[in-house]
Design goal:
The chain is α+β, with helices and mostly antiparallel strands and 420 residues long. The chain has helices at 22-31, 48-59, 85-90, 97-105, 124-132, 164-173, 190-201, 234-246, 262-270, 310-317, 338-343, 373-385, 395-399, 405-410; strands spanning 3-7, 13-17, 38-42, 63-67, 70-74, 107-111, 136-138, 144-148, 156-158, 180-184, 205-207, 213-217, 227-229, 250-254, 274-278, 282-286, 297-298, 323-327, 347-351, 354-358, 367-369, 389-393, 415-419. It is 30% helix and 24% strand. Helix 5 (124-132) packs parallel to helix 6 and helix 8 (234-246) runs parallel beside helix 10 (310-317). The longest helix is centred in the middle third of the chain and has 13 residues, at 234-246. The structure holds ligand EPZ. The site of ligand EPZ has 23 residues, from helix 1, helix 5, helix 6 and helix 12.
């Protein structure tokens, strides 16, 4: 594993072009399995999770080609319905392939995705919905999962929580089911809308993404040549804006969808940043030398404040002029990274789902360890705002969601380098 060495004290300044969204390209790559033809995806981010997904598609029999942000997937000749365990373990979100393989092949064998640093992350909603559609779920021993369905049938499904992954899996599984599938209390994230747009280009009759109620009419075999541009990554945009806020910087992010980051920008304005939105997906942020605290912030499903920005905003607040409270309502254990922030001098106490952050004047560089993707991003932000040098290990987690993070940040004035 490589390490990042961050020397704090520089104000970020400059422009960052935001890449395509990890959490959009992964379900769209799963959806290419529905196509008995070649799908072309543009604006794909170059991330380890994307490479892992391409390895899984190849193992299923797809021919894939990646040239920078452009990916081609030819799924006309699937040869397997087994998702290799070593790959499924490497990327928890491989579970979103389940619905597509089941729809196309009638069966799928996948290892039970483990929990991770941010919580147990069960898949009960996924499996209950697929069983409702007529699938048979066999939780084999030694952690494998076998799901079979000679023919899925459409039905009405109510999610007891607007789960992003469960919504995606049901949309994909419903593609060839008999009749209509309705998903109520569906997730409304922009990534769900992007998946719907891609599925429409495949010729699937799917509507309602973004509204909470999604309808899919099951259809026949798909043979299409879709070309689809992936939406920009709202969490990457939010992360770099948060880094600028933490360093009293002034940053321009380009290629963003303003509406997708509305709740993030609202928070950055509340803590004292000046944010402006320009035509053509350009947003600017000017940060004061000292930020104001946030009396209360709760994460919630879109369009609320995203849980995937919670560690980053807590890191920014650790040097604000007062006490903030952040409540994590989506995952049950997403504050573990705060132990690492405390090594840098942050004054944070976690009570269940709430973190109380007492802003300090200074953070001091130290050796810290990333144990999950967004917690790792929070450590980079704290290192940029700290005095002295911070050494961050576990950078592999960060590489799963941020393209060449040290290059991107160095270009806007950060002192950060990667050492093997
Ligand atoms: C997606 O994960 C994202 N990952 C996550 O981003 C994101 O944090 C999450 O949605 C919430 O927005 C991808 O899109 C690849 P959920 P997912 O199902 O689908 C519980 C990142 O950093 N739940 O919406 O796994 C679950 O435990 C990652 O990019 C069940 O109880 O999230 C959680 O508490 C981290 N049973 C809540 O629902 C289920 O069957 C939301 O999970 C499914 C979920």
């Amino acid at each position: 594993m490589s390490n990042l060495i961050v020397t704090g004290g520089s104000r970020l300044s400059g422009i960052i072009e935001i890449p395509g969204a990890k959490n959009a390209v992964l379900p769209v790559l799963a959806a290419t399995l529905l196509n008995n033809g070649t799908s072309i995806l543009e604006n794909c981010p170059e991330l380890d999770d994307v490479l892992t997904m391409l390895e899984i598609l190849t193992a299923l029999g797809c021919r894939t080609k990646r040239e920078g942000p452009r990916i081609e997937v030819d799924a006309s000749n699937l040869t397997s319905s087994v998702i290799p365990e070593v790959l499924a373990k490497r990327m928890r979100s491989s579970i979103i392939i389940l619905g597509a393989v089941l729809a196309r092949c009638g069966e799928v064998l996948v290892s039970y995705p483990g929990g991770c640093e941010i919580g147990l992350r069960p898949i009960d909603m996924h499996l209950r919905a697929l069983e409702q559609m007529g699938a048979e779920v066999d939780g084999l021993n030694h952690g494998m999962l076998k799901v079979t369905a000679s023919k899925l049938h459409g039905c009405e499904i109510l999610l007891d929580y607007p789960s992003v992954g469960a919504t995606e899996n049901i949309m994909l599984a419903a593609t060839f089911a008999e009749g209509e599938t309705i998903i109520r209390n569906a997730a409304k994230e922009p990534e769900i809308e992007d998946l719907q747009e891609f599925m429409k280009k495949l010729g699937v009759n799917v509507t309602g993404a973004g509204t909470g109620v999604i309808r899919i009419q099951g259809g026949k075999e798909i043979k299409a040549e879709p070309v689809h541009k992936i939406i920009p990554d709202r969490i990457v945009a939010g992360t770099y804006l948060a880094a600028a806020a933490a360093t009293g910087g002034s940053l321009v992010v380009a290629g963003v969808e303003y509406d997708h980051i509305g709740s993030i920008l609202y928070c950055l304005k509340r803590i004292g940043c000046t944010v402006k939105n320009y035509q053509g997906g350009v947003v600017t942020l000017e940060a004061p030398a000292r930020l104001k605290p946030l009396d209360l912030l709760r994460t919630s499903p879109y369009p609320g404040f995203p849980t995937d920005m919670q560690p980053q905003i807590v890191s920014v607040l650790s040097r604000s002029a007062g006490t903030s409270v952040v409540v994590e309502t989506v995952f049950e254990n997403r504050f573990r990274y705060t132990e690492q922030l405390q090594k840098l001098g942050a004054d944070i106490s976690v009570q269940g789902r709430a973190a109380i952050i007492r802003g300090v004047e200074k953070l001091r560089g130290a050796e810290v360890e990333a144990r999950d993707l967004r917690g790792g991003a929070a450590l980079i932000i704290a290192g940029l705002a700290a005095e002295g040098e911070t050494k961050i290990s576990g950078v592999g987690y960060i590489d799963r969601g941020y393209e060449r993070v040290e290059e991107v940040l160095s270009k806007v004035g950060a002192k950060i380098r990667r050492v093997e």
